[in-house]
J domain-containing protein (Acacia crassicarpa), 149 residues
Amino acid sequence: MPDVVDPYAACYYSVLGISKQATDCEIRGAYRKMALKWHPDRWINDPKLAMEAKTRFQQVQEAYSVLSNKGKRTIYDAGLFGLIGDDDDEGFVDFMQEMILMAQTESPKEYTLEDLERLLMDMMEGHSNEGTAKSEFQAASPTKKIRIK
């Protein structure tokens, strides 16, 4: 008789029965194994377990959809997966993956408030249609330097 699992408490790695260091091939194999095991059609003759099988099968599918996508897996491993909506915004996934990669590769650096403001303005100018327009925030730069750690 299968164990009852809380569908919202399970880690995607444990749902598939793999380690965090699993390769793409291992993830795919574990998915196939668990999808066959928990497919609702296999449990149709046992009404008591049919609902649990459906829930587990959905968990297996969700775990595979995240862990088989390198960007989503990176975000999941960083503990930020809850920030992604149901629409699977690939642009946001790419952005988060790039930010995580930068955080892992760059040495820690202290930024002044002016540095952070400059970085923000550069990002805003790069994404606006009016790249030549000056922001009202550029004129009001602080005179006191604050170290942000």
